[in-house]
Amino acid sequence: MRFSARSLAHCAAAASCLLSTTLADSFKSTSAYINYTTVTGFFLQDEASTNSTTFDFMTTNFGLINRTYPSDATLKHKGLTQWQRFKHQVHVLNQDSPHNVQYKLLYMGRHGDGYHNDAQAFYGTPAWNCYYSELNGNATVTWSDAHLSPVGVTQALAVNTFWASEIADQKIPTPQSFYTSPLTRCLQTANYTFNGLDLPAKHPFVPTVKEYFRESISGHTCDRRSNETYIHDLFPSYEIEAGFTKDDELWEAFHGETNDDQDTRSKNVLDQVFSSDDSAYVSFTSHSGEISSILRGESQGSKTQRDGGLLTWLPAHSPWPPSLWSEHWSCHSSTGEGTGNWRNSTNYRKSSVHSALHMHLTACGHCHYFCL
To answer: Which one of 117, 134, 220, 371 has the minimum C-beta count within 10 Å?
Structure first.
């Protein structure tokens, strides 16, 4: 059976988008390449005229454009909200699409302000990148696997209030499945954002912790996650994905992944979700750098999210032959003057971050990784 998905993504402190994807018949056994295509015309976040640095999803109905849809003619009821009509449109798209195509709406939320963000603002970016980011904290706060600051908690709770109003007034389709980065600031943001909302009983807030939704891996201690026991004890109701290592085996002091490496693991985790989750509405709680990587890898360019922001994205996916997949995503060792050198010459192929190419930061002046 051939399967494809067109999906929609949102980030609040968010982004949203409609994405379409297509999978080969034997995807689960052969890891065939999935091609994603964004379906535009539904969200302001996709419009060239929208300034992503000033866009406010909470004053624009999550960015949903006020428009008619081709499927409106088949509605059985009048007086429906924009979101109810949009939900019907997505239903019709999935109903009428080829059997290997599916549409998903992705709600992609960035964590709220963390203590690492405050420390970077306090010390200044140059000093932060070249010294303080490598420490676990100072005499006042800890920023290793940074927690939300009081400001970050307030931001996440504001998004929760907005979700509650959208559910009650706009009848917005709520996420049918939830995923989160394993870093504490995202675990907390997801909880403050979705806990206590009026969600359907068959789709409760029980997020899955996925390793590859983490922030860009750098030598900064804010990018080093805590161990599995800590995560479970902090949020016992969260599900932790199979194969999740007890300790963080990806982080290494003074080393970091390149954009190409991150884009490959972002593609990998997106493929995991699309090939195993039939939900039409999916929530990711992640980081600015990781959300930008997902969108960059799917030809959406880099979008900026403010702390606690939300983005929507509607993508479509289609399969490529496995031979093209491995050729397209192979990464080869290289050396760039003034940018460090590769530590491994292995390519990514099937995208295990454990075999990723890591860049060695040879001098303070070469620091260019940011905690977002």
So the answer is: 134
What stretch of H or E contains 368?
Answer: none
Q: How confident is the model at residue 107 (pLDDT cuts 50, 70, 90)?
A: very high
pLDDT at 263 over 90: yes
Beta bridge partners of 315: 38
Active-site residue (options: 166, 215, 257, 298):
215
Q: Among residues 191, 193, 178, 173, which one has the least CA distance to residue 282?
A: 178
Choose between 20 and 333: higher pLDDT.
20
> Three-state SS for 360?
strand
Determine the average pLDDT of the residues in 93-113.
91
Question: Does the active-site annotation cover 111?
Answer: yes
CB atoms within 10 A of CB 325: 22
pLDDT at 35: 81
Three-state SS at 367 = coil
The answer to whether residues 190 and 112 touch, using CB atoms and an 8 Å cutoff, is no
* Choice among 10, 88, 111, 287 that is catalytic: 111
**With 60 as the cut, is the pLDDT of residue 25 above it?**
no
Quick check: is 211 catalytic? no
- Strand segments (E) across the chain: 3-5, 8-10, 14-23, 33-38, 105-110, 177-180, 208-209, 239-240, 255-257, 281-286, 310-320, 335-336, 340-342, 358-360
Q: Could you give the CA distance from residue 8 to residue 42 in angstroms, rounded to a whole number? A: 9
Q: What single string gives the DSSP state of each residue in 38-74? A: E--SSBGGGSTT--TTT--GGGTGGGB-----GGGGG
Using CA atoms, how far residue 222 sits from 70, 201, 370, 372, in Å, is 47, 35, 10, 9
One-letter amino acid of 294: I
In DSSP terms, which residues pair with 6 in a beta bridge? 316
310-320 and 105-110 as β-strands: parallel, antiparallel, unpaired?
Answer: antiparallel
